[in-house]
Amino acid sequence: MERTLVIIKPDGVANGLVGRVVSRLEQAGLRIVQLKLTRATKAQILDHYAEDPEWLENAGARAVERLQANGIDWRELTGCENAPDVGRLIRMRLVDYMCSGPIVVLQAAGPAAVRKTRQIIGATLPSQADPGSLRGGHCSDDVILSFQEKRALENIVHASGEVSEALREIEIWCAGTPSP
Question: Could you give the residue numbers annotated as active site?
Protein backbone atom coordinates (compact mmCIF):
# COMPACT_ATOMS: atom_id res chain seq x y z
CA MET A 1 0.00 0.00 0.00
CA GLU A 2 1.50 3.34 -1.08
CA ARG A 3 1.90 5.99 1.62
CA THR A 4 2.36 9.72 1.40
CA LEU A 5 3.07 12.48 3.88
CA VAL A 6 0.85 15.52 4.26
CA ILE A 7 1.62 18.53 6.44
CA ILE A 8 -1.14 21.00 7.14
CA LYS A 9 0.88 24.18 7.52
CA PRO A 10 0.39 26.86 10.20
CA ASP A 11 -2.02 28.90 8.05
CA GLY A 12 -4.08 25.79 7.27
CA VAL A 13 -4.34 24.92 10.97
CA ALA A 14 -5.10 28.54 11.95
CA ASN A 15 -7.85 28.74 9.32
CA GLY A 16 -9.58 25.58 10.56
CA LEU A 17 -8.85 23.44 7.50
CA VAL A 18 -7.64 20.25 9.23
CA GLY A 19 -11.01 18.50 9.02
CA ARG A 20 -11.50 19.56 5.42
CA VAL A 21 -8.09 18.19 4.38
CA VAL A 22 -8.68 14.87 6.14
CA SER A 23 -12.20 14.61 4.72
CA ARG A 24 -11.03 15.23 1.14
CA LEU A 25 -8.33 12.58 1.45
CA GLU A 26 -10.77 10.05 2.87
CA GLN A 27 -13.38 10.83 0.20
CA ALA A 28 -10.72 9.99 -2.40
CA GLY A 29 -10.39 6.51 -0.90
CA LEU A 30 -7.24 7.16 1.10
CA ARG A 31 -6.91 5.95 4.66
CA ILE A 32 -5.36 8.15 7.35
CA VAL A 33 -2.89 5.85 9.10
CA GLN A 34 -1.21 8.41 11.32
CA LEU A 35 -2.03 11.96 12.41
CA LYS A 36 -0.45 14.27 14.96
CA LEU A 37 -0.66 17.92 15.93
CA THR A 38 2.81 19.26 16.64
CA ARG A 39 5.13 22.24 16.44
CA ALA A 40 8.00 21.85 14.02
CA THR A 41 11.55 22.43 15.14
CA LYS A 42 14.00 24.36 13.01
CA ALA A 43 16.05 21.15 12.62
CA GLN A 44 13.03 19.24 11.27
CA ILE A 45 12.24 21.93 8.73
CA LEU A 46 15.87 22.22 7.62
CA ASP A 47 15.91 18.44 7.17
CA HIS A 48 12.56 18.47 5.35
CA TYR A 49 13.66 21.26 3.01
CA ALA A 50 17.20 19.89 2.62
CA GLU A 51 19.77 22.14 0.98
CA ASP A 52 19.57 20.30 -2.33
CA PRO A 53 21.32 22.27 -5.12
CA GLU A 54 18.72 21.23 -7.69
CA TRP A 55 15.81 22.31 -5.45
CA LEU A 56 17.53 25.64 -4.66
CA GLU A 57 18.14 26.32 -8.35
CA ASN A 58 14.61 25.34 -9.43
CA ALA A 59 12.79 27.17 -6.63
CA GLY A 60 14.92 30.26 -7.15
CA ALA A 61 14.56 30.20 -10.95
CA ARG A 62 10.76 29.87 -10.75
CA ALA A 63 10.58 32.83 -8.36
CA VAL A 64 12.92 34.95 -10.50
CA GLU A 65 10.86 34.14 -13.61
CA ARG A 66 7.62 35.08 -11.87
CA LEU A 67 9.03 38.36 -10.55
CA GLN A 68 10.58 39.30 -13.92
CA ALA A 69 7.33 38.51 -15.74
CA ASN A 70 5.70 41.15 -13.55
CA GLY A 71 8.38 43.76 -14.21
CA ILE A 72 9.93 43.48 -10.76
CA ASP A 73 13.68 43.89 -10.24
CA TRP A 74 14.22 40.60 -8.41
CA ARG A 75 17.80 41.43 -7.43
CA GLU A 76 16.69 44.60 -5.67
CA LEU A 77 13.67 42.93 -4.05
CA THR A 78 15.51 39.84 -2.81
CA GLY A 79 19.03 41.16 -2.30
CA CYS A 80 20.25 38.06 -4.16
CA GLU A 81 22.52 37.77 -7.20
CA ASN A 82 21.44 34.40 -8.62
CA ALA A 83 18.65 31.82 -8.62
CA PRO A 84 20.24 29.44 -6.07
CA ASP A 85 20.60 32.34 -3.62
CA VAL A 86 16.90 33.15 -4.12
CA GLY A 87 16.24 29.45 -3.44
CA ARG A 88 18.19 29.72 -0.17
CA LEU A 89 16.14 32.79 0.78
CA ILE A 90 12.93 30.86 0.08
CA ARG A 91 14.19 27.95 2.18
CA MET A 92 14.98 30.17 5.18
CA ARG A 93 11.59 31.88 4.93
CA LEU A 94 9.97 28.43 4.83
CA VAL A 95 11.76 27.59 8.08
CA ASP A 96 10.33 30.69 9.76
CA TYR A 97 6.85 30.03 8.36
CA MET A 98 6.71 26.35 9.27
CA CYS A 99 7.91 27.08 12.82
CA SER A 100 5.44 29.95 13.31
CA GLY A 101 2.57 27.85 14.68
CA PRO A 102 1.17 24.37 15.10
CA ILE A 103 1.11 21.99 12.16
CA VAL A 104 -0.63 18.68 11.52
CA VAL A 105 1.49 15.86 10.14
CA LEU A 106 -0.34 12.89 8.67
CA GLN A 107 0.27 9.81 6.62
CA ALA A 108 -2.31 8.76 4.06
CA ALA A 109 -2.28 5.32 2.46
CA GLY A 110 -3.94 3.76 -0.54
CA PRO A 111 -3.47 3.03 -4.21
CA ALA A 112 -1.63 5.92 -5.93
CA ALA A 113 -1.66 7.86 -2.64
CA VAL A 114 1.00 10.35 -3.76
CA ARG A 115 -0.69 11.20 -7.06
CA LYS A 116 -4.20 11.38 -5.57
CA THR A 117 -3.06 13.60 -2.72
CA ARG A 118 -1.24 16.02 -5.02
CA GLN A 119 -4.35 16.27 -7.19
CA ILE A 120 -6.57 17.00 -4.18
CA ILE A 121 -4.17 19.64 -2.85
CA GLY A 122 -3.56 21.44 -6.14
CA ALA A 123 -0.66 23.38 -7.62
CA THR A 124 1.96 24.87 -5.29
CA LEU A 125 1.03 28.39 -6.38
CA PRO A 126 -2.55 29.06 -5.27
CA SER A 127 -3.15 31.26 -8.34
CA GLN A 128 -2.41 28.25 -10.56
CA ALA A 129 -4.37 25.69 -8.51
CA ASP A 130 -7.63 24.26 -9.80
CA PRO A 131 -10.56 26.00 -8.03
CA GLY A 132 -11.80 22.60 -6.81
CA SER A 133 -8.48 21.80 -5.12
CA LEU A 134 -7.71 22.63 -1.50
CA ARG A 135 -5.25 25.37 -2.44
CA GLY A 136 -7.47 26.67 -5.23
CA GLY A 137 -10.49 26.87 -2.97
CA HIS A 138 -8.95 27.98 0.32
CA CYS A 139 -5.80 29.94 -0.41
CA SER A 140 -5.19 33.24 -2.16
CA ASP A 141 -1.56 34.06 -1.35
CA ASP A 142 0.76 35.15 -4.15
CA VAL A 143 4.50 34.79 -4.79
CA ILE A 144 4.97 38.48 -5.52
CA LEU A 145 3.15 39.54 -2.36
CA SER A 146 5.15 37.07 -0.28
CA PHE A 147 8.44 38.49 -1.60
CA GLN A 148 7.28 42.07 -1.08
CA GLU A 149 6.32 41.20 2.51
CA LYS A 150 9.60 39.27 3.03
CA ARG A 151 7.94 35.99 3.98
CA ALA A 152 7.22 32.52 2.61
CA LEU A 153 4.30 31.80 0.32
CA GLU A 154 1.48 30.55 2.56
CA ASN A 155 -0.25 27.73 0.71
CA ILE A 156 -1.92 25.81 3.58
CA VAL A 157 -0.61 22.30 2.97
CA HIS A 158 2.40 20.27 1.85
CA ALA A 159 2.23 16.86 0.20
CA SER A 160 5.04 14.64 -1.02
CA GLY A 161 5.58 14.90 -4.76
CA GLU A 162 6.98 11.43 -5.43
CA VAL A 163 7.02 8.06 -3.67
CA SER A 164 10.75 8.39 -2.88
CA GLU A 165 10.13 11.85 -1.41
CA ALA A 166 7.24 10.46 0.67
CA LEU A 167 9.48 7.75 2.15
CA ARG A 168 12.16 10.31 3.06
CA GLU A 169 9.64 12.72 4.58
CA ILE A 170 7.86 9.98 6.55
CA GLU A 171 11.23 9.07 8.06
CA ILE A 172 11.81 12.72 9.08
CA TRP A 173 8.38 13.29 10.61
CA CYS A 174 7.22 9.88 11.79
CA ALA A 175 10.36 7.94 12.78
CA GLY A 176 9.81 6.20 16.08
CA THR A 177 6.07 6.80 15.98
CA PRO A 178 4.18 3.53 15.66
CA SER A 179 1.56 3.34 12.95
CA PRO A 180 -1.01 0.61 12.33
Answer: 158
